[in-house]
Automatic annotation (TrEMBL):
<feature type="transmembrane region" description="Helical">
    <location>
        <begin position="499"/>
        <end position="517"/>
    </location>
</feature>
<feature type="transmembrane region" description="Helical">
    <location>
        <begin position="152"/>
        <end position="172"/>
    </location>
</feature>
<keyword id="KW-0812">Transmembrane</keyword>
<feature type="transmembrane region" description="Helical">
    <location>
        <begin position="341"/>
        <end position="362"/>
    </location>
</feature>
<feature type="transmembrane region" description="Helical">
    <location>
        <begin position="184"/>
        <end position="200"/>
    </location>
</feature>
<feature type="transmembrane region" description="Helical">
    <location>
        <begin position="7"/>
        <end position="25"/>
    </location>
</feature>
<keyword id="KW-1133">Transmembrane helix</keyword>
<feature type="transmembrane region" description="Helical">
    <location>
        <begin position="383"/>
        <end position="407"/>
    </location>
</feature>
<feature type="transmembrane region" description="Helical">
    <location>
        <begin position="427"/>
        <end position="446"/>
    </location>
</feature>
<feature type="transmembrane region" description="Helical">
    <location>
        <begin position="66"/>
        <end position="88"/>
    </location>
</feature>
<keyword id="KW-0472">Membrane</keyword>
<feature type="transmembrane region" description="Helical">
    <location>
        <begin position="286"/>
        <end position="307"/>
    </location>
</feature>
<feature type="transmembrane region" description="Helical">
    <location>
        <begin position="116"/>
        <end position="140"/>
    </location>
</feature>
<feature type="transmembrane region" description="Helical">
    <location>
        <begin position="227"/>
        <end position="247"/>
    </location>
</feature>
<protein>
    <submittedName>
        <fullName>ABC transporter permease</fullName>
    </submittedName>
</protein>
<feature type="transmembrane region" description="Helical">
    <location>
        <begin position="453"/>
        <end position="471"/>
    </location>
</feature>
Length: 525
């Protein structure tokens, strides 16, 4: 039943993953086929900034194009695979319970654990098919240095890695009593392990074994081809699944391991409409997003003292420069890295925006808004309440991420940079998240069935700008994403003309969504 229901989404996810991997594999020979380009990219991959983003480059000479491909792609593709599994795991379990579907299924002659085991089976199928198609795509690209062993390790390694985070999501679905909380905590676990990997890769790669996320970079693709981490990932998946099954066997349907607290006898004086109600309901989610993004920014900022130390990372060049020139070079390195981090923060800040805006149709379908619509509250006010709520969360997360990076980054550097300079990134990237939210709002109002297509905006944005320079993606293709229009802040000044036209575009998208939503039929379950 799960596969029949989700077949189109499965096809789209697998096509995106396999297409990204095969497309990159087909282009790497033209990018790094010469010895000069190979040496240049290896030098780049060994810099602290790239190590924090992609993991340490540990391959031994002679280098091949396939080795470079594995080093650049494995950490990022692991992130996408984990996100895919989080989506399907929550959707097949906690979301079904929230909608009452699980109760109907259990009313028939099926075992108590059937819905959970069915979701496990679906994840196994999705990851195996994705892994096989990815291997076929890589092999078909005929990239220099490719081996069947390395390609199968890449495909199966990604499948196992994604499946492990699917098991984490199934566990959070048992702990929390609603899909939103389960999703947030699943992404929180993913984010914590990713940041832990980043820090240990910079400080001491041996400690990366303790981060869980770092296991995937230990595969040593197309060089040593280490299958050991795959076995470790599968073992961890089995342990998490066993715990999940144990919890599922004892909890009530619709409930979570963490019991829901009783509500107040009387409403708060601050409850004055849909917007304040949403903020009251989501106050814990607010706190989690704000704290998580501040910590994420702080963790990245903590390595500024390392990456911005030219004497340590490239002592030969440092000895040729004066102390003033070294200080300027250090600052330029940090500012360039801060620009990449700001892109990551903006994309992550887009996630709660889209989740919140999509809730308009989700809450309608579940009947949550019937009592609201029965009151003298216009549909336009309801639409803008969700939209404003979403932008408050997104704006707050982006601001706190940049602030955390600035405060902790300055504490780790010998020559601090003005916090206001770091905040250029917050101001410059804000219109991009506004446009992403506007696209989601328009789809929610105009095409509710395909509203999740809006996820393409942040996914393509991070891929085109994160890997665009490495694969020499044309600027025009990078600017298909709203994030691609932002200049190199905080190194440079904000381009105010770009800021204003992007802000205007984002507002127009929200207004069109508002006008359409006012006149379309409500969604019923």
């Amino acid at each position: 039943m799960n596969l029949r229901r989700d077949w189109l989404k499965i096809v789209v996810w697998i096509a995106v993953l396999a297409g990204m991997m095969a497309g990159a594999a087909g282009k790497f020979d033209s990018l790094y086929g010469s010895k000069a380009s190979m040496n240049s990219i290896v030098t780049t991959l060994k810099t602290p900034a790239m190590v924090s983003l992609l993991g340490p480059f540990t391959a031994n000479k002679p280098y091949t194009v396939a080795v470079i491909y594995g080093a650049e792609m494995v950490v990022f593709m692991g992130l996408i695979a984990a996100m895919m599994n989080i989506y399907f795991a929550i959707h097949a379990t906690r979301s079904e319970e929230d909608d009452g579907v699980t109760e109907y299924v259990l009313a028939h002659g099926v075992g108590r654990q059937s819905p959970l085991l069915a979701s496990v089976g679906e994840l196994v199928f999705i990851n195996l098919v994705a892994g096989v198609i990815e291997v076929i795509g890589i092999q078909a690209a005929s990239m220099s240095g490719t081996t069947a062993n390395g390609s199968w390790l890449f495909g199966i390694g990604l499948a196992a890695f994604g499946f492990m985070f699917g098991m984490v999501s199934l566990l959070t679905a048992q702990i929390f009593n609603n899909a939103r909380s389960a999703t947030i905590w699943s992404y929180l676990v993913l984010g914590i392990t990713f940041v832990a990997r980043m820090v240990t890769d910079i400080q001491n790669p041996d400690y990366t074994w303790w981060t869980v996320y770092g296991w995937i970079e230990k595969l040593n693709l197309y060089n040593g081809n280490n299958w050991g981490p795959v076995l470790l990932i599968l073992a961890m998946s089995i342990v998490i699944l066993a715990v999940t099954v144990g919890i599922s066997a004892t909890r009530d349907i619709g409930a979570g391991l963490i019991a829901q607290r009783d509500g107040r006898n009387k409403a708060s004086v601050f409850l004055r409409g849909p917007l304040t109600l949403l903020m009251r309901i989501d106050r814990v989610s607010f706190a989690v997003w704000f704290a998580s993004l501040f910590v994420l920014g702080a963790m990245y900022g903590s390595i500024f003292g390392t990456i911005g130390n030219l004497m340590k990372t490239n002592p030969t060049i440092a000895q040729l420069l004066s102390s003033g020139a070294v200080s300027s070079a250090n600052r330029a390195i940090v500012m360039s890295f801060a620009n990449k981090l700001s892109l990551v923060f903006a994309v992550v800040a887009t996630i709660p925006i889209l989740i919140t805006i999509f809730r308009i149709n989700g809450d309608e379908r579940k009947g949550y808004l019937e009592m609201m619509h029965a009151k003298p509250i216009s549909r336009g006010k309801m639409f803008f309440s969700y939209s404003i709520h979403a932008m408050v969360v997104g704006t707050g997360t982006l601001f706190l991420a940049v602030l955390g990076m600035a405060v902790v980054g300055n504490a780790s550097m010998k020559s601090p940079v003005l916090v206001s300079r770091f905040l250029r990134s917050f101001i410059a990237f804000w219109p991009a998240i506004l446009i992403a939210g506007g696209v989601a709002a328009l789809l929610v109002a105009l095409w509710p069935r395909i509203q999740t297509v809006a996820w393409i905006v942040p996914v393509y944005g991070i891929f085109s700008l994160y890997f665009g320079p490495l694969v020499k993606l044309p600027k025009s293709l990078q600017q298909v994403s709203p994030y691609g229009w932002i200049n190199n802040v905080p190194t440079k000044q904000i381009q105010w003309d770009t800021f204003w036209w992007m802000t205007l575009l984002g507002m127009v998208l929200f207004i069109i969504g508002y006008l359409v939503y006012r006149h379309r039929d409500l969604i019923e379950n």
